[in-house]
Amino acid sequence: MGTHTDTDPLPTPVTPAGRDGLGAILADPGKAVIGLDFDGTLAPIVADPEQARAHPDAVPALARLAPKVAAVAVVTGRPAEVAVRHGGFAGVPGLEHLVVLGHYGAERWDAVSGEVTAPPPHPGVAAVRAELPGFLDRAGAGQARGTWIEEKGRALAVHTRRASDPQAAFEALRGPLGDLAARHGLIVEPGRLVLELRPPGMDKGVALSEYVREISAEAVLYGGDDLGDLPAFGAVEKLRSDGVPGLLVCSGSDEVTELRERADLVVDGPAGVVRLLSALAVQLG
């Protein structure tokens, strides 16, 4: 994988729309938003999400790039303060233009204030939280053994990566968890061997498009790696149809081919994302 160097060239997107998006960012970076997922994009995927940390070169690259653009927005399903802590974003010179849109935009952490703002949580999350352990215990005689619950505050996630057959457990639980979520007014968002139960109307596409409109950005880059990033890809495609150029970057993963197929540019995981951000910062001078 290696680390980035200042000599890494800026890669060329494979699509005309992607080349237009990159061109718009280079032409007027002060009107551009750089949107990035956290897990799998800025941070390598690990078995235990609590152990996830940003790639060691991510913060230095962001600190070089952020002052040159309108904003860097980390868009994540995690609680905002968790992403800030695991990313090491707080108190870093150069990151004044960084925001973290946590819980799919329900929470916002702003680097300038260092504070998180958020509305009250959805009541269905508390109901599912109470019911979920027993629900998985009952399913444990089948495929659910080895699964575990991640507490996300405004959402809950069931991980199957540690099960004896992770993919079979994922498929077996997808329908029943969907039923459980629906009973409490929630939805299930599938990811890479994870099923997240969360309120409807929260997704990365909504968060990204609302933020782009809020700051009147005129170009956008979005980088992601997972199924949860598809709504953000859709949001960039919609923005492009509305005349806002955009660049879609896939943080390469063989686990999620849908993103790879829709991306303008595929890079080699978080290390590749860091090299791209560094090359962009260098290009902007």
Molecular structure report:
The protein is an alpha/beta fold. The protein contains 9 helices and 12 strands. It has helices at residues 16-27, 58-65, 80-87, 123-144, 166-183, 204-214, 230-241, 257-262, 269-283; strands at 32-36, 71-75, 98-102, 107-110, 115-117, 148-151, 156-159, 187-190, 194-198, 219-224, 246-251, 265-267. Strand 3 (98-102) and strand 4 form a beta hairpin. The radius of gyration is 19 Å and the shape is globular.
Radius of gyration: 19 Å
What's the arrangement of strands in the largest beta sheet? 5-4-3-2-1-10-11-12
Number of strands: 12
Largest sheet: 8 strands, mixed
What structural class results from the helix and strand content?
alpha/beta
Beta-strand percent range: 15-25%
Give the fraction of residues assigned to helices: 25-40%
Task: Extract low-pLDDT stretches.
Answer: 1-5
Number of helices: 9
Determine the N-to-C terminus distance. 25 Å
| Global outline | globular
Mean pLDDT: 92
What's the SSE pattern? HEHEHEEEHEEHEEHEHEHEH
Key descriptive features of the protein:
39% helix; alpha/beta; globular; 8-stranded mixed beta sheet; 19% strand; 4-stranded antiparallel beta sheet; 285 residues; disordered N terminus
Please provide a brief summary of the model.
The protein has nine helices and twelve strands. The protein has helices at 16-27, 58-65, 80-87, 123-144, 166-183, 204-214, 230-241, 257-262, 269-283; strands spanning 32-36, 71-75, 98-102, 107-110, 115-117, 148-151, 156-159, 187-190, 194-198, 219-224, 246-251, 265-267.
